[in-house]
Amino acid sequence: MDKTDEVLKERIDKAKAGNQIAFSSLLDTFWNYVYYFQLDRTKNENDAEDITIQTFSKAFDKIKTYDDKYEFKTWLITISKNIHVDLIRKRKHNVLAGIENSTSDAVKKVLDESPTVEDQLITEQNLATLLSHIKKLKPHYQEVINLRYFNELSYAAIAKELNEPVNNVKVKLLRAKKLLAEIIKSK
Predict the structure, then answer these.
(1) Which stretches in the chain have pLDDT values below 70?
(2) Cα gap 184→133, rounded to integer Å
(3) In sequence order, what are the residues at sequence separation of 6 or more whose Cβ sits closer than 8 angstroms to the Cβ of residue 184?
(4) Which pLDDT tens digit goes with each residue over 65-83?
(5) Which residues make Cβ contacts (< 8 Å) with residue 148, sequence separation at least 6?
(6) Cβ-based neighbour number of residue 88 at 10 Å
(7) 3-class DSSP assignment, residue 10
(8) What phi and psi values does residue 145 have, to the nearest 5 degrees?
(9) pLDDT confidence of residue 120
(10) For the chain, how are helix, strand and coil distributed in percent, rounded to 5?
(11) 123 vs 137: CA distance, rounded Å
(12) Are 162 and 144 in contact (CB under 8 A)?
């Protein structure tokens, strides 16, 4: 086992133990891999992003079931493919009705609410500048940031407001904070 594999295994083990930094690291490491895989399949940026969010949401929820005999990114792609197939089925079945999501109490355990490096960076910014940076994000990321930090809603309340699973909200918020931190750092 080479050093890269050892580091990955360590991150996965920490994620299985509920470590938020490990989740964040796995998300950063594999986000583009899953996203571009889905972009190639769907030919639609919004669908690719939604499926990627759902992939990480489901992966983090089921991380304890991951078997390290298989490559982690293969496991993620399998989840991603299944979500895409389910999405296609639901769209065919529910042409007039929207796709409904259910919430689960188990997903509340995925990420803790302790401040991250991104949280500290966001807090340090001037509010007017911060708002101008937030406006550079995609609308669904703006919405989740506003609900969490300006309306001070809990993950559960945001999930109810957006009619999405709590886990999706957590992944969207994590991704939004990463993108916002990148925008802030680039200035």
Answers:
(1) 1, 93-128, 187
(2) 7
(3) 121, 122, 125, 130, 133
(4) 998 888 999 999 999 999 9
(5) 155, 158, 173
(6) 12
(7) helix
(8) -65, -45
(9) 61
(10) 75, 0, 25
(11) 17
(12) yes
CA 175, CA 24: separation in Å to the nearest integer? 9
Q: Are 164 and 153 within 8 A, CB to CB?
A: no
Q: What is the pLDDT of residue 115?
A: 57
User: According to the model, what pLDDT value does residue 113 have?
Assistant: 53
Token duo for residue 9 = 């295994």
Q: 47 is written with which tokens?
A: 């669908």
Q: What is the 3-state secondary structure of 44-92?
A: CHHHHHHHHHHHHHHHHHCHHHCCCCCCHHHHHHHHHHHHHHHHHHHHH
Length of the chain in terms of residues written:
187
CB count in 10 Å sphere of residue 167: 27
Nearest to 76 by CA among 65, 89, 90: 65
How many angstroms separate the CA atoms of 160 and 169, rounded?
Answer: 10
Q: What pLDDT shows up at residue 13?
A: 92
pLDDT at 70: 87
